[in-house]
Amino acid sequence: MKAYKYIFAFMACVAAVSCVSDEEFLAEKPKAQLTIANAYDSSDQVLNTLLTGYYEFEELYFPGSMGQGLAYNTHTGTDMTDNKYQLGANQHMSNFTAAWSTTSSLPKGLWDKFYKVISYANLAISKLDEVSWSSDTDKKRVEGEARFLRGLSYLRLAELFGGVPMVVEYTETPNYAYDRASRTETYNFAIEDLKAAFDILPWNVSAEYGRAGKGAAGMYLAEALLARGVEEGDKKADFDQAASFAQEVIDHHPMMTQRFGVRNIGATGSNHGIPNEDPDGNVLTDLFVAQNIISAQNTEAIWIMVSAPDYNTFTANGGSFFSPNPGGRRCNTLGFTPALQDYLWADEYKEPGAASGPWKAFSAKYGGEMSPPSHGGTGWAQSTPTWYASYTMWDNEHNNGSLGQDLRYIEDVTVKTEFMCCDDKHSLYEQKVGWNHIDRSTPDLSGIFFPIWYKETPFDAWDYDPNDPGFSWFGKYINFYRSKYAARTPEVYFLLAEAKLRGGDVTGATAAINAVRARANAKPFSTVDIDIILDERGRELLYEEFRWATFLRMKPNEWKKRIYDHGMYSARTGTDPATLYPNTRRWAEDTGEIKFNLWPIPQTYIDLNTGSDGLYQNDGWK
Q1: Are 145 and 197 in contact (CB under 8 A)?
Q2: Nearest 10 degrees: CA dihedral of 295, 374, 61, 312?
Q3: Which of 146, 157, 161, 342: disulfide with 124, CB 3.0–4.6 Å?
């Protein structure tokens, strides 16, 4: 392997200093100069450095205050989602002729994020032997978690960018002469770290949700072995190992197959005036109830990204709507809900005396809210699912005759494709209306009408915090508080299926896919291929999966066609736009040709690397 290089990590230095409380500092003999070398006096400081690495990782899962952020950039531009449609704009992530370049913020943001996590992990590892620990078990666990975060970060870097510079020790010395390792070497290091973490970490970490255990290490280890196996020309030994680790994780984290938790049948009490018992729910809705995500009953929760539990926690930690705070994590509806308030009636549904659109007016019965909770709250459609993700992949042709019975797509339970008209001046008052009722002549509006899923957006006030003040020009229902799954057992089944398929065991791959479908009450497939696996990942993991990482670790011909066929704004000569997204404009300048197999190395770092030409650009971006 190429010689490892080192990186100066100023942010980690700041974090290390901040770990020392005022009381501890005053109780110590003052030092002439506080540096990384002498700042660590206790194991708690090492643990806090590790937790800061976790915090950095969490930012990939929660949107920012205005409904955007890194959370969207794990899947925007794929066959699943894109960012908000605006007529005349061109910065949509499936418009590869305009939105992508070597200076685009998305690749740089993720490059920076993963190297920042690596820096914290390296710093924590470097201090393990310099402080006293209450037990060797505690020390080994911190080491395992640090290696987990570092290994996962290198896995993601290798998947997205290919071979990258290897930074495996903490140093304060700047380096301007990085060389890229090969992609296989990067995968090798990720596998080494993840295997070490798997050997060290405990299975049961439910009491300390947010921290990773053996299950998370095993899941990503299976993914890394799959990635290396593909990179090395379909290496069966890697596929067999991946299947073995995936199966072990499944055995320890079985899927939830029955209803459970605070909204189950027979539940007593209420929340915000709504009964806790949800007789229309199913096991999929139970999985995404805030309290159930972190419940000890939930064997499916392998690794969780933690959100603040309520509005008071958010504000107590200095957060505000426009300035989120690390102590006040929150999800919001601006990103994942259509801007219903903007839609107009189609001509045949316009009526004298009624509002101009089905959701332009709300009767007193519905509180006069611009966007009530029954509509998913206030939506800006910042992350818009493709027509394929919204409708096509659920139809009988693509979902094996399971329309109407797949628990993941049950109207008013797990998905809403239509929304109630709340205008009491219209004849359709209190009836469901949707795509066929709205004016679709304006592409920027028709392009952002889409279903909402309970897994990401609540359907009633039970989930929303009544103490959230909202804003008059937004509407009240903007924020709610749920942790998010970073790793969930169905994804392990999909890794198992892919490993079996690539290793030649089609029967085993089919059984793994059908296990997830059985829980969803969907009809089993008689056989599967890579497209069916990717479809099933989309149906089960929409908004959860790091779709770009899944795509780029695969063979280009396995993922590019999916974007050509299903990407919201991609276009191909001779293709009828209505087959991809009815009645919406295509980008005339978009040829539909994806010229890259990997994301671009951020040009900023290539330019700064003056001591070596070893940090070179990926093909397709030069």
Answers
A1: yes
A2: -70
A3: 146
Bridge partners (DSSP) listed for residue 167 = 5
CA atoms within 13 A on the CB side of 377: 30
Structurally, the chain folds into a number of domains equal to 2
Residue where a domain stops, chosen among 481, 498, 530: 481
In a domain, 582, yes or no: no
Range of the domain at 130: 1-182+599-622
Among 117, 217, 192, 62, residue whose Cα is nearest residue 543: 62
Confirm whether 19 is domain-assigned. yes
pTM: 0.91
Residues 205-229 have pLDDT tens digits of: 865 678 999 999 999 999 999 999 9
Buried b (16+ CB within 10 A) or exposed e, 548-579: bbbbbbbeeebbbebbbbbbbbbbeeeeeeee
Rounded CA gap, 485 and 313, in Å?
A: 21
pLDDT for 10 equals: 32
402 or 584, which is more confident? 402
For residue range 306-352, what is the model confidence (pLDDT) as tens digits?
876 554 554 444 444 444 443 444 657 888 899 898 899 999 999 99
When comparing pLDDT for 592 and 375, which is higher? 375
Classify residue 282: in a domain, yes or no: no
Contact by Cβ (8 Å): 67, 380: yes
Same domain as 160, residue 32: yes
